[in-house]
Amino acid sequence: MTALVVGARTGLITSANYARALGPWKLVLLFALVALTLVGPEARGVIAAAIADAYLQVSVFVAATLGVIYTFESRMKTDLAVVLDRYRAWQVPIAALLGALPGCGGAVAVVTQYVRGTLTFGSVVAVLTATMGDAAFLLLAAEPGTGIAIFALGAIVGTTSGYIIDWTHGTNFMRVARPDAPESLPLGDAPRVNPLRPIWAVLIVPGFILGALDLMQVDTDALFGPLAVYEPTLILGVAGALLAFGMWTLDPEQKFDPGICRAGGPFVRTVDATNFVTVWVIVGFLVYELGTHFSGIDLAAVFNTWAPLIPLLAVLVGFLPGCGPQIVVTTLYISGAMPLSGQLGNAISNDGDALFPAIAMAPRAAVVATLYSAVPAILVAYGYFLMFE
């Protein structure tokens, strides 16, 4: 960053300075995405679909959730971190309730607060245990009664697990040191003006509508009439995802700390934090989709095995980052190919797309929290299996 600042002051911003300011990880992500464009046409179709799904199934809902939170903080002249710090005894149930909300936005918000040093590790376990990710929308649309019951169960199990973790290890276990979090920019400075943010806002609104309709199994392309042959939903999803990817990876000032600085207002914070999440969700979607494409693994065939192993397999699939595998599990349950015990185990063990930013910002805590969530998942899944199936 120093190289870029010096270059800006002297008017000599060289490509070397810019590359150093971006950092090695951003350059790796950029080169990897460019390299993927060189694969065959069939794989390119898989890549385009994965990138669009990352945006329409995750990013738009993360943006909506974070936008509500940051706007509330701004209007109420408060900070969620301050509120959570003031009511420490309620951190775990609040985290669990946010995780139980359909989608990954609430879980991402909790993970962000944990990285800010506000929440206990038990709160992270609570939110990752309670969240079902974007598969929740699919279940809610197909079986609303079952969906609401699983959300409530996730909140209860998450709260219980979180309190047990904090009671066992103490509230300072794996606590992140609080970073400096400036409430405003230094005197004389102004928020960075990014001309791409208005375009980002123009895409996010129809993206949210299309994403919500898609989760309700609506053929969104058909809504465009004769333009449906051009796959407008895919085009918008790819455009929104690449815009978010480019805004984060090509901006030297964007770090691995979305939402820490409150400068710039709720809109700027929402854009920057959503772009950060989008990058890692795209990475996760591509790894999963390309992995299954080239390996030929069929999760439906994997689950077509001896019944007592199905809950365990569903729990293990829940360890996979992202919502793609979990949506597959929920689809199998809705179609009758998987018993409810498997759906319960997967719903509790899976962390949705919140695991991507968690791995990026606090990898050790993410791994440990995921392993801890397996215990209640196995207990609930096999408890239901033994009693009712």
From TrEMBL:
It comes from the Bacteria. Keywords: Membrane, Transmembrane, Transmembrane helix. The chain crosses the membrane at residues 21-40, 46-72, 92-115, 121-141, 148-165, 199-216, 228-248, 277-297, 309-334, 365-387. InterPro entries: ArsP_2 (IPR021552). It holds the Pfam family ArsP_2. The keyword RNA-binding does not apply. This is Arsenic efflux protein.
